[in-house]
Amino acid sequence: MPNNTENMRKTPKTMLIIFGIIMIVIYVGMGCLLLFTQFFANVITIDWIRYVLGGAFILYGIWRAVRQFRFNNDLN
Q1: Mean pLDDT of the chain
Q2: What is the pTM of this model?
């Protein structure tokens, strides 16, 4: 039966995993908003800048996902 100190060590790891997944969703979602919608058309008026930023956000979200799941597998 796990004692209290083992539960305290496991909680920050779980929080980091959840935070990482949330950030992946935010980065990929932001990239999709920039690429596929006109949501930021008033803020970023030059289309190619929106496309470059959208692609960068999506690529960074994918990179974070790879690192997140690689790190998660190393913990187990």
Answers
A1: 87
A2: 0.78
**Which residues have C-beta within 8 Å of that of residue 56, sequence separation ≥ 6?**
31
Cα four-point dihedral sign 53, 50, 28, 66 = negative
> What's residue 3's pLDDT?
63
Q: What is the 3-state secondary structure (H, E, C) of 33-44?
A: HHHHCCCCCCCC
CB 64 within 8 A of CB 25: no
- Please enumerate in sequence order all residues whose Cβ is within 8 A of that of 25, keeping only pairs 6 or more positions apart, or say none: 61
Do residues 31 and 54 touch, judged by C-beta distance below 8 A?
yes
